[in-house]
Amino acid sequence: MFEAQDAEQIAQLFHETVREINVRDYSSKQVKAWAPDNIYFRNWVEVCSSRFTYVADDEGVIAGFGELEPNGHIDCFYCHKNYQRCGVGRQIYQAIEAKAVELSLNRLFVEVSITAKSFFQRMGFSVVQKQEVTCRGESFVNYVMEKSL
């Protein structure tokens, strides 16, 4: 689970993942809008503390994190660029799903990037709709996905 001292590593992980991994599917302008130069544009301590935030730790290095809101919405879900395709995301997702079951939720839902779409499909999610969203003046394609529990 998230602890306040994780915030700096989480902010850095988010920034680097978007800038170095998501740039495969989005333009440089898009990833700079999504993950601005000021990595503290979001109050990471406040937001992560207000949700069920699961953190994968590898001997002091945060390998990934995911946030579950009480209504079943998965917000941020990112794996460190050096821990892609190592099972970290699956472990974080399994913790989130177990918490959702414990909370008696009957579905999980998420808005995912082009990059993350196949991961969530492997976790059993279905695409509800493709959408275009705007962030800091840039438009992005992403997908609303859900999974019944």
CATH fold category name = Aminopeptidase
Order of helices and strands: HHHEEEHEHEE
Estimated radius of gyration = 15 Å
Give the N-to-C terminal Cα separation: 22 Å
**Which parts are unreliable, with pLDDT below 50 for 5 consecutive residues or more?**
none
CATH architecture: 3-Layer(aba) Sandwich
Relative strand content: 25-35%
- Class computed from helices, strands and strand pairing: alpha+beta
Q: Biggest β-sheet: count, sense, barrel?
A: 6 strands, mixed
- Number of separate structural domains: 1
Biggest sheet strand line-up: 1-2-3-4-6-5
Number of strands: 6
Helix segment tally: 5
CATH homology superfamily: Gcn5-related N-acetyltransferase (GNAT)
- What is the CATH domain class? Alpha Beta
Provide the residue-averaged pLDDT: 93
Taken from the alpha-carbon principal axes, the silhouette is: globular
Helix content: 25-40%
Organism: Chamaesiphon minutus (strain ATCC 27169 / PCC 6605)
InterPro entries: Acyl_CoA_acyltransferase (IPR016181), GNAT_dom (IPR000182), N-acetyltrans/Recomb-assoc (IPR052564)
Domain N-acetyltransferase: 1-149
Protein name: Acetyltransferase, N-acetylglutamate synthase
Brief sketch in words of this structure:
The protein is 34% helix and 34% strand.
List keywords for this structure.
globular; 149 residues; 5 helices; six-stranded mixed beta sheet; Aminopeptidase; alpha+beta
